[in-house]
Every structure is written in C-alpha cells, then in structure tokens.
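Bumping my old thread because nobody answered last time. Still need a sequence for this structure:
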C-alpha cells in the first residue's frame, strides 16, 4: 500500500477522455425523458464563469474542483485558489490536492504564487518542447507532471487590488494551458482580456444533480479522505 494514500484514486490514463475532465452537472434530454452527465474537459483550455452576483459562480467552482479531485490523485493534479469572493473557497483547503487558498489580504502570497506559475510555464516550455501535458505524460510514464488548476473567484476584486496582475493573468492564460496550467475564473461579465484564451460559461443552465447536498457531501468525503500533512508533491505557497 502506498504511504501517501494515492491508492484511493483511479490511475489517470492521459490518453482517455476522462483525463482532466470533471463532472459539473447533468443536462436535460427532454426528447428521451432523461438526463445526461455534463463534463468539463480542461484539455480544451481554461474557463471564464460569468454572471451576476448570486448566480452560482462560486458553487460552480467548488463542483468543478471536487469532481476533478475525485478523479485525479494529488500526484496528478495540484490546485491553487485566489479566494476573493468572500471565503467561498475555504472548504477546499481540506483537499490533499490544494497547495494554497489565498485571500485578498495576503499580498505576499499572491505575488509568490504568480511568480511560481510564471516559473512553471518557463520550465515546462523547455521540458515539453511543443507537446501538451497529456502527450508528455503519455510518452514519459516514469516522469509524469501534474496538471495545475488555478481558480480565481471574483476577478473584479483581484484586479482592483492588484492593478498590474491583469496583464500577468492574461499572459498566464495565453501560455499556461499548453503547459498543463489551467484557470477557472469567475467574473460579473465576460472579460475582453480573458475572452481569447477562455471558454465562456454561465452557470445558471447547469441542472440540479450535483447541487444535491448528499451528492456534494459524498464527493467531498471521497476526495478529502486521505488528507496528508505535509502534502508530498504539491507545493505550498
């Protein structure tokens, strides 16, 4: 048995559709009187979740994070969060995949994480050559690299507090996905700066299946059942 608890997670087949895919809800198929699973595949790039306050953007992030954490071990997925939306991402600190949940008052940690992300982009550009993360991991089974998910809740607050960070974020959005560094950002509107590098999502149409308290609670229990201190592999910030 592996000491880090990774046996709790399925092996990630980097050639499969499920790699870097998270279940975010169910979609109605009224013509056949059924519901079908709705997955979001990070391999297709980063996402911008937009809409008015109270429309479920933070809940969407928690659902995505939980689903990805169930399907991927902490060795295959690292998660970092800028929690500028009033503490809605605090619960994910219990996941062994999480290296940091940073709030709006932690200036030094914000800068440190941005610098680390830029460093990883540079290092992976050299390591991967022109390959994607999935291709690299398929062809280097003994030297696989984790996917990195960065969630930013409330872009407007982030931008107000860190005026120059918008340029850095756009650069990371542009260059990160091909290096296995993906973003999920929430905002009140579709941001012109982020639009070319993100898929745009409004959370309202997502069906209720994964909003069930029982389903969400069961997923958290599965994903966080082997919390480790310290977390090997995941870099704290």
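Sorry it took so long. Here it is:
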């Amino acid at each position: 048995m592996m000491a880090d608890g990774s046996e709790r997670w399925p092996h990630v087949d980097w050639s499969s559709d499920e790699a870097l895919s998270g279940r975010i809800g169910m979609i109605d198929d009224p013509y056949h009187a059924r519901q079908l699973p709705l997955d979001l595949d990070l391999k297709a790039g980063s996402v911008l979740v937009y809409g008015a306050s109270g429309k479920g953007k933070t809940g969407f992030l928690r659902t995505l994070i939980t689903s990805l954490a169930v399907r991927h071990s902490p060795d295959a997925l690292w998660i970092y969060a800028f929690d500028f939306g009033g503490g809605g991402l605090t619960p994910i600190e219990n996941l062994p995949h999480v290296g940091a949940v940073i709030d709006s008052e932690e200036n030094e940690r914000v800068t440190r994480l941005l610098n680390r992300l830029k460093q990883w982009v540079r290092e992976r550009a050299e390591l991967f050559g022109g390959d994607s993360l999935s291709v690299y991991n398929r062809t280097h089974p003994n030297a696989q690299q984790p996917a990195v998910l960065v969630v930013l809740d409330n872009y407007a607050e982030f931008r107000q507090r860190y005026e120059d960070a918008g340029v850095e974020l756009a650069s990371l959005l542009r260059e990160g996905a091909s290096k296995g560094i993906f973003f999920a950002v929430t905002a009140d509107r579709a941001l012109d700066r982020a639009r070319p590098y993100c898929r745009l999502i409004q959370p309202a149409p997502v069906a209720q299946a994964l909003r069930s308290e029982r389903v969400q609670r069961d997923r958290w229990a599965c994903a966080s059942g082997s919390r480790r201190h310290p977390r090997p592999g995941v870099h704290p910030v």
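The chain has a mean pLDDT of 82. Let me know if any region looks off to you.
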